[in-house]
Amino acid sequence: MPYRPNIYWAEKGAPVGVGASANYHAILRGRIKLNSAGAPHCVANEYVAAHLGRIVGLPIPPGGVVQTDDGDIGWASLTFAPRGEALPDIVPTEVIAQMPEVASMVLVFDLLTANVDRHAGNLAHIPPRRLEVYDHSHALFHLAPDSCDYLRRIRERFLLDGAFSTLGRTGRHCFLDHVTQPELLDGAIEHIRRVLTDETLKQVTEEVAALDLVTKDAATCLYICLRFRRDNLAKMVYNHRAEFRAIPEDGWGLLWESKSL
Description:
Elements: E1 10-15, E2 24-28, E3 30-34, H1 42-56, E4 63-67, E5 73-78, H2 92-98, H3 100-112, E6 123-126, E7 130-133, H4 147-154, H5 182-195, H6 198-210, H7 216-231, H8 233-239, H9 253-259
Antiparallel strand pairs: 1-2, 3-5, 4-5, 6-7
């Protein structure tokens, strides 16, 4: 098993008093993200990425769209740290050594979702084999006010090298310089292509419009972008193989060369 299943945290309240099972009211511990003027699609980004990521099998904290007491719509996700404390940044080489398949899947999934903000502070590693993959607010629509124009511009871009970052950091993916097994990248790509069907992508992107998180036109643009990126993951990886600095040029093999065509 590549990682240990994750446990989340809640406070047990009074018994519900209905049913035969031990049924209690609960106060869940979590965090809520809201849209803002600088990040108008934050909630949509989190919703789509979390749903697709969990279908792929990534250890993403459970979450959902919520309405707060004052009427704001946000994305709420469960807390994974036992006392809600901040966890230290991951050490990418340690995660890759202990969970190489999961690390490869994170990298390929971030490539799919155009996540330009995967740094060591938005993954949580609880040794030896527990990982939390969270914070997708800068994926997909990113911070762009004109979502369709942005998605058209980045549709064919690699993005994980930081060349397109507008966040004030390098934007370079924290695993990019450290993965060593191209066969695991290939496995992740094939898995994503298999489970994220056209129907699945269409359903999730239509859901985000049905929730009024984006317009129908923006949801259609997102579907087109995701479908294109899914179908061209291998080509994007191989054409940017020099960015994978721990994999030598002769480590890719003829199979990868054929995938780039």
